[in-house]
C-alpha cells in the first residue's frame, strides 16, 4: 500500500507547487474609445469576465483600467484582447 501512495503524494506535491508559484499581479491599462459615462461599466464588465481576474477599477477621467489578476490563470494579452474585442482597445500603461 505504501508503494501505491508514494507516486500519488509526489504528484500532489508537484501540482501544488505550481499553484504556489502563481502570483497575483496588478496592471494599469490605457483604454481607448471611452466616450460616455456608460463606457467604464462596459470595460469593467468585459475585463471582469476574463478567467483569473479578481478586481477591475476603471476611470473614465483617466481613461485607464487597473486590473488585479492571477498570472497562473490569465495574462495581460488575454485581458487586453477581451477589452479590444469589446471595442475598447487597451495597452499596458508604462
By DSSP, the count of extended strands is 4
Tell me the CATH topology: Alpha-Beta Plaits
Low-confidence blocks of residues: none
- Percent of residues in helical segments? 40-55%
- CATH architecture name: 2-Layer Sandwich
Number of domain units? 1
Briefly note the structural class of the backbone. Answer: alpha+beta
Strand content: 25-35%
Figure out the total of helices. Answer: 3
Return the CATH class.
Alpha Beta
Query: Biggest sheet, strands in spatial order?
Result: 2-3-1-4
In short:
With 94 residues, this protein is of the alpha+beta class. It is built from 3 helices and 4 strands, in the order αβαββαβ.
Describe the structure.
There is one protein chain. 43% of the residues lie in helices and 27% in strands. It is an alpha+beta fold and 94 residues long. It has a single domain, classed as Alpha-Beta Plaits. A four-stranded antiparallel beta sheet has the order 2-3-1-4. A hairpin with a 4-residue loop joins strand 2 (53-59) and strand 3. It starts with a helix and ends with a strand.
Top keywords for this entry?
globular, 3 helices, about 90 residues, single chain, Alpha-Beta Plaits, alpha+beta, 4 strands
Topology:
Blueprint: H1 2-21, E1 24-31, H2 39-48, E2 53-59, E3 64-70, H3 76-85, E4 90-92
Antiparallel strand pairs: 1-3, 1-4, 2-3
